[in-house]
Amino acid sequence: MLLFYQGQPVEFTVVAITPSNVLSGAVDPYFAGNANVLFQVDADGESNIELEEAWLETLSLPGGLQIRAGQIYTEFGRQNPTHPHTWAFVDTPLVLGRFFGPDGLRNPGGRLAWLMPTPFYSELMFAVQDSHGETASSFRSSGHSHGHEDHDAAPFAYRHADNDRGVEHLEDMLFSSRYAVSFDLSDTQVLLLGASGALGPNSRGGEEAGRTTSQILGADLTWKWKSASHHAGFPFVSFQTEVLLRRYDAGAFDWDEDGDGVAGPGEIIDLRSGAAELLGGEILTDYGFYSQLLYGFRPGWVAGLRFDYVSGQTADYEGRALALDGALLGRDPQRAQRWRLSPNLTWYPSEFSKLRLQYNYDDRLVEGVDHSVWLQFEFLLGAHAAHKF
User: Fold this and answer.
1) What are the DSSP calls for 159-199, one per residue?
2) Residue closest to 317 by CA, chosen among 292, 350, 342, 281
3) Which pTM does this prediction carry?
4) Which of 11, 54, 226, 301 has its CA 20 to 30 A from that of 187?
């Protein structure tokens, strides 16, 4: 629920009501299954049903191996594989939202995990998934429909996503891997380190742009302290951070889409020539990180502070004299520098409910500064699986 935006009250705008139906259990001694189905009512009153996750996994493979298959979250970093109700903040970190989209990186596929035979936690994971769809925004995300574009805003990389080649070879899939290791530093402290990578095709550019790919690398660190004399897990202090780097291959794109040689509405033009712009292919480099600190100062009460930063190297297309429907184009808003500071306070009346108040100070290089205050209420009904550390 959004309470204030840009310093102005917005009359308790309900951003979304999202009940989640969780089905989980053992099929037999060899398999277990899980499904998360969301029913959402947005601020416009529109209802949507979404299959967040639905998978089957093995329970008794030898050698510490496990296979999971279905609609799955990609095991990348700390937050992406988790459901929104487990997050410590109302919204996703900026760098994850920019690279993976608001719903995270998830798609149909399979994952192989190996729990290594070490005296400490050590796990290696490898997954192959479909690279197409809204939940694969850095990869083969949906293109555009001619005649129905939003003329008020330029697309990402100032190119439409028309270079979708479909799935013809194994290399057209999305591949990801993760290695995580955890140590007990003392009786009261634990440290978890991780490294992740994802590789797959993207569809950014014209239909004849050739093979364009995206590569994303990440590293994460989580540290937690819990008092030796704790009660119900309190007091505690935890710190979590992730850093990500993306190399995005943007294909060539000709804005003279109707081929008449004349710049028309909805086409990006070169102000020097007055003609529709012809963009060559180039590699885009983007990066960002977030760090968050949580302090559980008394049973049921947690104070949090998060800092986000995301940016990218200036690309060739951003330095050209371009315009769209009379509006000058410069730094791409979807790649420009942005940082955000978010303090919050969460009250857990019980393990089945929470009430959270959060403020965001959001500084965007192109659009300016935003202020927003959020109120989040959540409750669970029935049994629910345990959350990851």
Assistant:
1) S-B-----S-SGGGSEEEEEEEEEEE-SSSEEEEEEEEEEE
2) 281
3) 0.91
4) 301
